[in-house]
Amino acid sequence: MNAIIYCRVSTTKETQETSLVRQEEELTKLANEKGFEIVKVIREQASGYELEREGILELLSLIKGKQADVILIQDETRLGRGNAKIAILHCILKEGIKLFSISHSGELQLSESDSMVLNIVGMVEEYQRKLHNIKIKRGMKRAVKNGYRPEKNLSNRDVHSGRDRIEVPIEEIVRLRKNDLTFSEIAATLRGFGYDISKATVHRRYKEYIDSVSAE
């Protein structure tokens, strides 16, 4: 399995550099013992309470890109402290990544309290997805009730695929807006019919249309 070694110390003092070296040496030894292939070593000197860290952002980007199966750390506090630690653990574990630590001489065992909080975070995220889907359905039903006919108005939706350019009939945005749908509901409705469009894009296209009409 491919592994990333992540080392962190809390300050930029020169005396902390020896700790980084020691962490890397111990984690490299652990990786060799477990038969992992080290694909990246990330060293960071920053507070664990901060989320905006170059090293941790690089780590999350790498695992999002499926470039590693395992992360090796000295212990879970190296990832972060307090709420930052929980947020980072959640991002890592939901990608199916395993955590190995020196403190456990193998796979990391979360404390009961950390496990409970992560379970709650997972449940909240699931309900957020459900609410998002409910919002999309609500927007569709409201649009259809107000005369929106996707089979007629979006008959060419399969022609424009991919992410090169978002093609949406501006007249549909205008008509749905006139039917008192919010920009968020319009975006949700159009996404349900195959258009990869955000609330911001809907608002921008509508404003461009209004500005063009006003200029005439």
Radius of gyration: 24 Å
Q: How many helical stretches? A: 8
* Tally of strands: 5
- Characterize the biggest β-sheet: 5 strands, mixed
Class inferred from helices and paired strands: alpha/beta
Question: Approximately how much helix is present in the residues?
Answer: 40-55%
User: How large is the share of residues in beta strands?
Assistant: 5-15%
How many angstroms does the end-to-end distance come to?
63 Å
Mean pLDDT: 83
Adjacency order of strands in the biggest sheet = 2-1-3-4-5
Unreliable segments of 5+ consecutive residues: 154-165
List the helices and strands in order.
Answer: EHEHEHEEHHHHH
Overall 3D geometry? elongated
Would you mind describing this structure in some detail?
It is built from 8 helices and 5 strands, in the order βαβαβαββααααα. By secondary structure, it is of the alpha/beta class. The termini are far apart. About 6% of the residues have low confidence.
Write the topology of this structure.
Layout: E1 2-9, H1 17-34, E2 37-45, H2 54-64, E3 70-73, H3 82-93, E4 98-101, E5 106-107, H4 112-145, H5 150-153, H6 170-178, H7 183-192, H8 199-215
Parallel strand pairs: 1-2, 1-3, 3-4
Antiparallel strand pairs: 4-5
Helix pairs in contact: 4-7, 7-8
